[in-house]
Amino acid sequence: MPHRQNIFMKELYHGDNVFFKVGDETFEYIVSDCFLNHRRGDNDAIFTALGLDKTDKIDLASDNYGYDANNGDWPEYRSTDFAAATRLVKALYDLCNIHNTTKQ
């Protein structure tokens, strides 16, 4: 059975850890005031693993934030808008689940 990530989660806050699984790779991030910070690599690693280019990444973030995302390896949300961060993380979990179920 493929690994499913929990999309029913509490709202994220500063200092929370977020884990994404794509295939055999796990990506660990920590929530900061304006973006998620990858613990072991580039902040855009999860987007790259899912095959999203820069435009796709910004569009996905802006759609989930409800406003234009600021540019960056992890598209920045407004300072301490953790609800927006949570929406993007849930969307990324959905994409990870789709990726993991289609790559069996």
Could you explain the architecture of this structure?
There is one protein chain. This protein has one domain. The protein has three helices and three strands, in the order E-E-E-H-H-H. It has helices spanning 45-49, 54-65, 82-102, and strands at 17-22, 25-31, 36-38. It is globular and about 40 Å long. The longest helix is centred in the C-terminal third of the chain and has 21 residues, at 82-102. The termini are close together. With 104 residues, it is of the alpha+beta class.
Characteristic terms for this protein:
alpha+beta, globular
Tally of contiguous helical segments: 3
Strand content: 15-25%
Q: Biggest sheet, in brief?
A: 3 strands, antiparallel
Radius of gyration, CA atoms, in whole angstroms: 13 Å
Low-pLDDT residue spans: none
User: Roughly what is the average pLDDT, rounded to an integer?
Assistant: 91
User: What's the shape?
Assistant: globular
Strands of the widest sheet, in order across it, are: 1-2-3
Which structural category fits the helices and strands? alpha+beta
* Percent of residues in helices: 25-40%
Q: H/E element string?
A: EEEHHH
Strand count: 3
For the terminal residues, how far apart are their CA atoms?
Answer: 9 Å
Briefly, what is this?
Helix content is 37%, strand content 15%. It has three helices and three strands; from the N terminus they run E-E-E-H-H-H.
Question: Can you lay out the helices and strands and say which pair or pack?
Answer:
Blueprint: E1 17-22, E2 25-31, E3 36-38, H1 45-49, H2 54-65, H3 82-102
Helix pairs in contact: 2-3
